[in-house]
Design brief:
34% strand; 25 strands; 6-stranded antiparallel barrel
Length: 405
């Protein structure tokens, strides 16, 4: 065998190395592709389960009267009949029989100031009246005696048994007795007037309720000095403040530009800040014919058609002026929510209720109509937290992140 023939039997190392390198590169690229697929799948899986950012809204309890509301205003409760009860007399307060919240009747004694001096004056005036009446009785007795003596004297004079001088004396005595009785009657009148003045002085030391009502505030205590108009230092003027709770009304400030929407006897719905769920019917009682230039408002008085014992003076109130008197159904609360909370899923109206663990629960709802800026719905309840404008990615049971904006 020749040398050339043996060279053909040698192994080509370069070709073998090339084949092995190609296979290694293929395995390397397959590994990278598999890794990319795994990472992409994980990213897709994670993006599909990533919490969705949502804004929260609250399901509210609304009233259908919002749909017939012409104008809203704010105001406060005030008593049309109220008084700061005091006295014209001055002195130390020695008795106070009421406190805040006491229910009183007209004429009831509320307080009394020290009155020993005026009572003594009253006793003196009463004694003077008794003395004047006694003197009058004595004068009447003298007058009766003088009249009898005059009759006898006149009879004797007719028979010429006595002189004319004696008759003149009897007539003069009668006239003096008659004049004395008239003077004593005048003294009785003076004594009676003095007694009335003393009685007034005593009555002025007693503070009485001017009308049926409730004591709002107590401004003085036993031992305080009470003076008219509180003109002295460290003295009190009004002892108590009283209000007739049957005359409560709402004083609402209405913008001057909105005054044309208000008319007397217009139906009104009153809501108190202290009791948000309490809605009371009222009516426009009167419009005060003056404008507050500092606020460009007009004061409108609203009378309560419905009464409630929880209503107190100076409570803040919201007033809704209605186009017409509401029906019984319109006065019942309904469930309402912002329109952005209701979305379409598979052709149905749904809302996503957000639980405390920040998961969304998809609930089917039914819309019944608009209530101002809200929409009436059923299927959810007042107080529920719902997602506003939920993203298409949000699914039933999905996790959410609350957007605090």
């Amino acid at each position: 065998m020749s040398t050339n023939d043996l060279s053909k039997l040698t192994i080509d190392r370069s070709k073998k190395a090339f084949v092995g390198g190609s296979r290694s590169r293929k395995k390397w690229w397959l590994s990278i592709a598999a890794l990319i697929i795994v990472v992409a799948g994980a990213a897709v899986f994670r993006s599909g389960n990533r919490p969705v950012s949502v804004e929260l809204g609250t399901v509210a309890s609304a009233f259908p009267t919002q749909a017939i509301t012409t104008l809203n205003a704010t105001g406060r409760v005030s008593a049309f009949r109220k008084a700061a009860v005091s006295t014209k007399a001055s002195g130390k307060l020695e008795y106070l029989g009421v406190q805040e919240g006491s229910i009183v009747k007209a004429g009831q004694v509320l307080a009394r100031i020290e009155n020993k001096d005026v009572i003594a004056t009253q006793d003196q005036a009463r004694a003077n009246l008794r003395a004047a009446k006694a003197n009058s009785e004595q004068g009447l007795a003298d007058l009766r005696d003088a009249e009898a003596n005059l009759r006898r004297t006149e009879d004797l004079a007719k028979k010429n048994f006595i002189s004319g001088a004696q008759l003149d004396t009897a007539i003069a005595r009668h006239d003096r007795a008659k004049a004395s009785v008239a003077a004593l009657s005048g003294q009785i009148g003076v004594a009676e007037a003095n007694l009335r003045a003393a009685n007034v002085g005593v009555e002025q030391t007693v503070i009485r309720a001017p009308f049926d009502g409730v004591i709002l505030t107590k401004n003085a205590n036993v031992g305080d000095i009470i003076t008219p108009f509180s003109s002295a230092a460290d003295s009190k003027g009004a002892v108590v403040n009283i209000a007739d709770m049957t005359t409560l009304e709402v004083e609402a400030d209405v913008s001057e530009s909105s005054l044309s929407k208000i008319s007397p006897d217009m139906p009104v719905e009153i809501q108190l800040d202290a009791f948000p769920d309490l809605r009371l019917l009222g009516r426009v009682s009167r419009i005060v014919p003056t404008v507050d230039r500092s606020k460009a408002t007009v004061l409108v008085k609203v009378a309560f058609v419905e009464k409630d014992n929880r209503v107190l003076p100076d409570m803040s109130a919201k007033v809704a002026f209605l186009q017409r008197a509401p029906s019984a159904d319109e006065r019942k609360p309904v469930t309402a929510v912002q329109p952005a909370a209701v979305v379409k899923r598979d052709g149905k109206d749904v809302a996503f209720v957000i639980a405390d663990n920040n998961t969304a629960r998809m609930v089917a709802v039914t819309m019944s109509g608009k209530l101002g800026d809200l929409v009436q719905v059923s299927g959810i309840k007042p107080g529920d937290k719902v997602a506003l404008k939920p993203d298409e990615k949000l699914k039933d049971g999905g996790e959410v992140v609350i957007n605090k904006k």
